[in-house]
Amino acid sequence: MAINLTKGQKISLDKEAGVKLTKIIMGLGWDAVKSKGFLGFGGSAPDIDLDASCVMFDEQGAQVDAVWFRQLHSKDGSVVHTGDNRTGAGDGDDEQIIVDLTKVPDNIKSLVFTVNSFTGQNFSQIENATCRIVNGSDKKEVARFNLSTLGSHNAQIMAKIYRHGGEWKMHAIGEIGNGRTFDELMPQITPHL
């Protein structure tokens, strides 16, 4: 059973999965809050474009690469974004980032996952927003992080996956922020490296 992560929590991905992970999927899902129409009828939900990003850092904390809706593959091929969902329509993951841990170059120390509202809505206008880590081999959920914290922020630094003692660990950062892309969150990301 998947663990529900809380802000600041650290876990061993292998221990939580029960196996040595070779591939993980970061899934992002969300729905727009539906407005109520006249007498409760005819409500609508605005299109909300949340974007998942993965920023790759070296041992010194320098950004090496980033995978997001404008660059769907890392230069080394270890990280792949499955594509931009601009509405949150559908059930399950609306966007996914797939990481082949066996192909992440040795000079990469950490991968930081962020979520941004590209259309600018804040999280009080978004419901059922979750990020989850899935074992890419058997598709079982390893960990889940609830992003539906109501507030005026429109971005969140979700988690950092990092190398430690020969294994991959995860730190649920859960820090709120503001910015339409991961670039605008960099001043908030760097202290967590």
From TrEMBL:
Say yes or no: keyword Amino-acid biosynthesis present. no
The TerD domain is annotated at 1-178
Q: What Pfam family does this protein match (any one)?
A: TerD
User: Which keywords, in A-to-Z order, does the entry hold?
Assistant: Tellurium resistance
Gene Ontology BP, a term: response to tellurium ion
List, alphabetically, the PANTHER family matched.
Answer: CAMP-BINDING PROTEIN 1-RELATED
Kindly provide the name given to this protein in its UniProt entry: TerD family protein
**Species of provenance:** Sulfuriferula multivorans
Write the lineage as a comma-separated list.
Answer: Bacteria, Pseudomonadati, Pseudomonadota, Betaproteobacteria, Nitrosomonadales
